Amino acid sequence: MNDSSKSTLTTERKEMTSGNKRTKFAIASASALALVASMFAAASPAVAAGYSIGVSNSWAGNAWREEMVCAIKAQATNTGKYDKVLVSSRNTDAAGQSADIRSFITQKVNAIIVNSGDTSANNPAMEEAIAAGIKVIAVDNSVTAKGVTLVSNDQVKYGAVGAEALAKAMGYKGNVLYMRGISGAGADTDRDKGFRAVMKKYPKMKIAKEVFTNWDWAKGGELANQLLVPGKFQGVWTSGIDYPVVEAMGKRLNGKYIPLVGADNNKFLQQTAQLASKGFVGIVVSNPAVIGGAALKVATDMLDGKSVPASNLITPTAWTYKSNKKEIDGLFFKDQEATFSSAIKIPGYTNFTAAQLFRCKAPQDSNDGSR
After folding, report:
1. CA 112 remoteness from chain centre
2. Which residues pair with residue 206 across a beta bridge?
3. N or C: which end of the chain has fewer CB atoms below 10 A?
4. Which of 294, 266, 265, 25 is nearest to 153 (CA)?
5. What is the Cα–Cα distance from 143 to 125, expressed in whole angstroms?
6. Which strand ranges, in their side-by-side order, compose the sheet holding 149-153?
7. Cβ contact 158:194 at 8 Å
8. CA 267 to centroid of chain Cα atoms
9. pLDDT of 179-233, one tens digit each?
């Protein structure tokens, strides 16, 4: 991959007035009725003036995934090249997600963006779409299907850059509490590769306990409260389930804090800044949910006949408050929820504003003049 296919994440801060209420993303969970309707409703091919695209998301109700879908909608609206963005966002297994992908084939979309719950189980459905002339883009989680284009944060480097920063914060020795995501998910597998490659470099560092959080905030907090005791661990690596673990430190470690790797989540950014004076080293690794907008950009380029690399990876960064105070302070959204993924711009890929992202409007949605 050449340098033009990578982009270093930058940030955009949106100032909110004090009278504004917290903005929440407007993604409705798919009911069984809605799903059946989407699968069997008569659907005409996109007219020459505009494309249609399907979005298959295997995990509904997750703030990061919701923001990802909103980024796809915002970017599609901004291009002016799409008639429809059709979204199937629900909690389902591989069979259910494959059915969703096949429903998009039936609806004759021009492209499908898939955040797959498994690296290979949805391969047949994705390969059927490609055989039908549909462009298929895997976002966030890598897959092994032939002909699929990947758009993702570089998950191997995500694991590695966080591990390197953690090793430095720990003085290259001590026990690590290793808190992973979902077993079998492409992103988790890739991050594990990067993390372990770094750990092998430092023989005085040890994975003292390895657990899976399933990227569930409540579960991550429960595990931290069960496992954290004074002196047992000298550092924590999380796969993004970060702020509940920091809260557990305050309760379980007698007010002391040990270095922790997290993501660019709103509450963790605030903790990293506010607790720095108490000795807390928060390591913020970029993992922008707006990668969905980047996937839409790549899909558009493919549909326009442009040459696109098979793998389009965003290079992650690792920030600490000591070295990156300005960036961390500038990334925090005081009116957004704790789990909000605060990095909302990827140069070279996205061009929507914060307001457009928060509106979460697809091209077919009514235009109330605020676009």
Report:
1. 18
2. 175
3. N
4. 294
5. 12
6. 82-89, 51-57, 111-115, 135-139, 149-153, 311-314
7. yes
8. 16
9. 999 998 889 999 999 999 999 999 999 999 999 999 999 999 999 999 999 999 9
